[in-house]
Write a structure and sequence with these properties.
The chain is an alpha/beta fold. It has one domain: Alpha-Beta Barrel (TIM Barrel), CATH 3.20.20.100. Helix content is 42%, strand content 16%. The protein has an eight-stranded parallel β-sheet with strand order 3-4-5-6-7-8-9-10, with helices on one face. Strands 1-2 form a two-stranded antiparallel sheet. Helix 6 links the parallel strand 7 and strand 8. Helix 3 crosses helix 5 and helix 8 crosses helix 9. The longest helix has 15 residues. It is globular, with a radius of gyration of 18 Å. Bound molecules: NADP nicotinamide-adenine-dinucleotide phosphate (NAP). NADP nicotinamide-adenine-dinucleotide phosphate binds next to helix 10.
Length: 273
């Protein structure tokens, strides 16, 4: 468990992008029963109904789960944030979202930063949101948001994996007591292509996916692998038990390959690296 502000976050979460309908309800409810307690969705995934149904089906008490959703770029205004949150809660069938993210630091957000941040702060005061999260924020975007926001920002969700290690961003977030939530922790499905992970996996009798997740956790970041395959869900949850040694971590830290898989040319900011 990782403590940030008054929030206790699990070491690993569950991504849900692309999962919708009965198959996903079944998989996500099993994931929650298995032990996943940090669930990630977004307005733009159009699956909040599925995620809400999976939480109910799991039978796990709501208060034991940290649920995160996101406000998308076309709702970055005072009223837009409120409207989007209301819609999220309705679709989820819940009274509160624990973390609500600003999904991208898009120009619609930049233009109306103060009003957008005030809307989030008020929704927290009203008990509809637990905490503000940011996503895809660069170092500069983070500093600007901290300067304008009257509460603690708890997480920045960005792409991070062995081919995009985010060393400078991690350090900056650490200095500001913000946790990094790693999306695409399994390189969007290409995790078996990394020779260093395969080698370390053999040594630990684990899978390359588990080694990637264990390495991300060793950096104090929280991976949110997506899966609707039961064996993968188990694999991912159990990665918490893998103890990488110094040599393993050094080997992954030393990987020179750099690749960003998130390809959103219009909405992406000018990245730090
Ligand atoms: N904030 C943002 O802008 C942003 C952007 C993108 C994504 N995200 C979040 O990040 C989450 C993760 O991203 P993602 O789903 O695209 O990428 P990912 O988690 O890196 O990779 C998912 C892929 O890996 C497979 N997989 C899962 N577990 C595996 C295992 N143990 N061994 C081998 N393969 C495995 C999955 O297939 P199976 O389903 O068959 O297991 C799926 O094809 C999303 O669901 C979303 O919540 C956020």
């Amino acid at each position: 468990m990782l403590k940030i502000s008054d929030l206790i976050l699990p070491k690993i979460g569950l991504g849900t992008m692309g999962g919708r309908g009965n198959k996903a309800i079944e998989a996500y409810s099993k994931a929650i029963k298995m032990g996943f307690r940090f669930i990630d969705t977004a307005r733009i995934y159009f699956n909040e109904k599925t995620v809400g149904a999976a939480i109910k089906k799991s039978g796990v008490p709501r208060e034991e789960i940290i649920l995160a959703s996101k406000v998308f770029i076309w709702n970055f205004s005072y009223n837009g944030v409120r409207k989007s949150t209301k819609k999220s809660l309705k679709k989820l069938g819940l009274a509160k979202v624990d973390i609500m993210y600003i999904h991208w630091p898009f120009k619609t957000y930049k233009k109306r930063k103060e009003k957008v941040l005030r809307a989030f702060s008020e929704l927290i005061d009203e008990g509809k949101i637990g905490h503000l999260g940011i996503s895809n924020f660069t170092i500069n975007d983070i500093d600007e948001a901290i300067a304008k926001y009257d509460k603690q920002i708890v997480v920045n969700q960005v792409e991070m994996h062995p081919w995009l290690q985010q060393k400078a961003l991690l350090e900056h977030l650490d200095n500001n007591k913000i946790k990094l939530v790693s999306y695409f922790p399994l390189m969007h499905g290409r995790i078996n292509e990394v020779p260093e992970l395969k080698e370390i996996a053999q040594k630990h009798k684990a899978s390359p996916a588990q080694i990637s997740l264990a390495w991300i956790m060793s950096k104090g970041a929280i991976p949110i692998p997506k899966s609707t395959t039961l064996s993968h869900l188990k694999d991912n949850f159990e990665s918490q038990n893998i103890q990488l040694d110094e040599e393993d971590i050094k080997k992954i830290d030393g990987i020179n390959e750099v690749k960003r898989f998130a390809d959103f040319p219009i909405i992406a900011p000018e990245w730090d690296d």
